[in-house]
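Researcher: Please predict.
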Amino acid sequence: MNGYNITKLTNGINVLTENIPYVRSFSLGFWFNTGSKNETAKNNGISHFIEHMLFKGTKKRSARRIADEIESLGGYLNAFTSKEHTCYYGRGLSQYIGKTFEVLADMILDSQLKSKDIKNEAGVVIDELHDIEDSPEELIFDKFESNIYRGNSLHYPIIGTEKNILEFDKKAIEEYLNKFYTNNNFFIVASGCVSHDEIVKMAEKYFGSRKSELKQTTKKFKPTTAEDQNFRKEVQQIHAIIGKSVYGYKNKKRQAISILSHILGDGSSSRLFQALREKNGITYQINTFLNSFYDVSTFGVYFSTNPKNYNKALNLVNIELQKFYDKPFTKKELQRAKAYVKGNILLGLENTSNRMMRMAQSFIYFNKVRTIEETISDIDNLDMNFLVELTHELFEPGTLIKTTISPEKFQIS
């Protein structure tokens, strides 16, 4: 099956692997299909907090020993939390995959969650929150999504709130783990010089007897209305996003929007980059983005500029958006965009971690691993008329929402 192998353990845990015989390394991920989307106002931030806590020690291993056992073998451990997923992953040389699997399993199965560690880590996470608050180019994306997704759990920022972080305790953490770190929410994914049968044996050894309740269902996304917002902070630049919510991960229009995004603002040859940076020299950062979830995606234009140039920059962005609406693109632009997107996908496959993450997300969203050939074919089959119609829908006047972060003394018009 195109190099992919999938086994479902009797207790519901899925094991996915891809053998790449010409590499000597592996990437191994333990994925849980849960993130801030499954939180409430009261426990917002707990998914990310748990990600931190599982590195703080088990009965067998201290926090230092967890890191040392992998790093002493030339490997690497890390984790990340998104709005829909939490992933604990390791990389290393193929002969050490058993040790990496064991350490990750120990973290999942036997983390101690000591009160002292919870209190100490709260300080670390609050410091991380303050770093985000001090980074307007990062903060603005949280503000924008909190605005357009209000009324939905996607509204919640991954990092959470300082009040919540200070109140997390062992009981709250264990309740969340029992509710969402369930077997049918758990995916073990490996790519590289790996043996599927060996990964399955390890999964059976460490998790075969693990029991859990069925996962809880999450609320479906409900569209809501949003208004332009401005936040004043002690910053030198104005940071702005203009965008909207669009189609989710499984909708075929999402891939089409990624093509349109490239033509408009992804890369040095894009229209926005050329208009604002190359021709007018009024911004260093200017790009489009597409951030996708199960039910919905976030699409927008982000830029930052000096306050004295803001109105000119905003006007130029709006002019380019109107041009794109009136006369979207040429056949040459479309061909170049398709080649660029396909190239990025294929180049990314030279990294085993990227391959592992692609496999996991594909299986979680589509309940199968979509082949590269399928993805490339989808891009090739996007025709001009379909994309033009989508452009008119995407950039319909009056449908885009603006969020800005500006210096405290600057008045946004």
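Model: The chain is about 45% helix and 20% strand.
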